[in-house]
Design goal:
Strand content: 5-15%
Number of strands: 9
Shape: globular
Number of domains: 3
Distance between the termini: 42 Å
Strand order of the largest sheet: 3-2-1-4-5
Radius of gyration: 26 Å
Length: 466
């Protein structure tokens, strides 16, 4: 029995993805039949090779666009009207992407505005399916009953890392079993259980599907025999660190042991892999440059209009890169010229040093477009921990456990922490972001990079950057 998942993919959003595929297939198939019937236009039919080619060029861009606007995130806090707006944005993106594929390939597009009509029907179909999913609490599909062994400091991690109700949609927490050695002063809020029977009997009586080990002092205190029996009966036994990692996408840095770093470090990449990685990142940078050059010109003009023709447009700053090596990062200037007259400072959420144009550039991440040069030069990748200033990095290395571990990979324009954690400007925020950075470092892969790149579109499209 296992409850592992591919990062944020779980049974609830997998079910939603499958339902969307069924809706899209039905709309496409019956849409072509209806259009052919009413217009007497010969269109591809089910079973034809061209039918499946057109189906893929319709379905795949839509699935990517739905992911990009956050509609496969069951923790998304959005009204139904907000979801309708996101769905409309996704359809526009998918239509543009699909049209682009038709344009650069020799494939013949569907005639007589057939695609436009099908995309219009898709909006209605997906809106109805989303309404049905939300009203039936689809996010609770696959929810498991969880029992925590321990009611002290380590057990309270669940409460600290998953405060919101939406953070716990994948499991139904039955309670915390108190055992000897628990730190009672830091006991979690919730149902504290004092067993009056064996653990294995309690698990059977309450149909527990997963046991989380969160004892503050394990040696001599864990009911090993009962845990073994539960394991034999198919109950999943999970360590609290692994449970937090799986459910939140972060590593509890203040509670992991040095062995975690030793056993979870990846092998160094071969030269061939590094070359492919640079080629992949440079290709994406080139594509973004081809599409976004008008925004670059616009940013230059707006900065000059606000600060004068002689005002510098670019801003360079030293950051800490791979293996702690410093490099110069480039951005469009979004702060006043005298922003650091008193030395290096944290950038805050409502920083008074930010210019009016700078606020707009930051909101839509336009200020980071010059970092494409850093990608071409090999200083950065598209995905990775955000590079920190050496002044702050040095402080964090001495005060935050495992902070220097984030320098084992190249920094990135975007990352797992940027998707998971809001803007922060303090040591406490640096610790929280490190939890997500370590998760990325442990699980980094080509597919995870693609997932992060796609989901970063939500930040750009809906102005969530700062």
């Amino acid at each position: 029995m296992t409850h592992s998942r591919f990062h944020d993919l779980n049974l609830s959003n997998a079910t939603l993805i499958f339902a969307d595929i069924l809706v899209l297939f039905s709309i496409f198939s019956f849409g072509l039949i209806g259009i052919e019937h009413f217009t007497s236009t010969k269109l591809p039919q089910y079973g034809d090779t061209h039918f499946f080619i057109h189906l893929v060029l319709y379905t795949l861009p839509l699935q990517i666009a739905l992911l990009a606007v956050g509609l496969y995130n069951e923790k998304l806090r959005e009204s139904f009207n907000g979801m309708a707006v996101r769905l409309l944005v996704a359809l526009v993106l998918a239509y543009i992407l699909s049209s682009g594929i038709y344009f650069i390939t020799p494939l013949d597009t569907l005639p007589n505005f057939s695609r436009e009509l099908i995309f219009s029907l898709t909006f209605i179909g997906l809106l109805i399916s989303r309404f049905i999913a939300i009203t039936n609490n689809y996010e609770k599909i696959g929810q498991v009953k969880v029992l925590v062994i321990g009611a002290g400091e380590r057990a309270s991690l669940i409460e600290r890392c998953m405060r919101r109700k939406s953070d716990r949609v994948h499991f139904d927490l039955q309670g915390y079993v108190h055992i000897s050695g628990d730190n009672k002063e830091q006991a979690p809020k919730g149902n504290i259980i004092e067993l009056d029977c064996s653990l294995s009997d309690y698990v059977k009586q309450h149909n527990i599907e997963e046991i989380v080990i969160a004892a503050d002092e394990r040696r001599g205190n864990l009911p090993v025999d009962s845990l073994f029996n539960c394991k034999i009966d198919g109950v999943l036994i999970t360590d609290i660190i692994d449970f937090i990692e799986r459910e939140t996408g972060q590593i509890a840095v203040t509670h992991i042991y040095p062995s975690w770093v030793i056993f979870n470090d990846k092998k160094p990449s071969h030269f061939f892999v590094k070359a492919l990685n640079w080629l992949f990142n440079s290709t994406i940078a080139l594509l973004i440059l081809l599409f976004c050059w008008p925004l670059i010109i616009l940013a230059i003009i707006l900065i000059k209009l606000e600060d004068g023709i002689s005002a510098p447009v670019l801003y360079s700053q030293q950051r800490t890169g791979l293996r702690g090596k410093p490099f110069q990062i480039y951005k469009f200037r979004s702060m006043r010229l005298d922003a650091e007259k008193n030395g290096a400072q944290w950038a805050t959420e409502a920083d008074p040093r930010i210019t009016k144009i700078g606020l707009f550039l930051r909101k839509y991440r336009i200020d980071e477009l010059p970092q494409l040069f850093n990608v071409f030069r090999g200083d950065m990748c598209f995905v990775g921990p955000r590079p920190e200033r050496p002044q702050f990095a040095e402080q964090f290395e001495h005060s935050i456990p495992y902070y220097n571990h984030r320098h084992n990979v190249k920094p990135g324009l975007t990352g797992w922490a940027q998707l998971k954690y809001p803007y922060g400007s303090s040591k406490e925020d640096a610790i929280e972001k490190l939890k997500f950075d370590l998760y990325y470092i442990k699980h980094r892969s080509f597919m995870l990079d693609i997932l992060i790149l796609i989901r970063t579109s939500e930040i750009v499209l809906f102005g969530k950057g700062r």
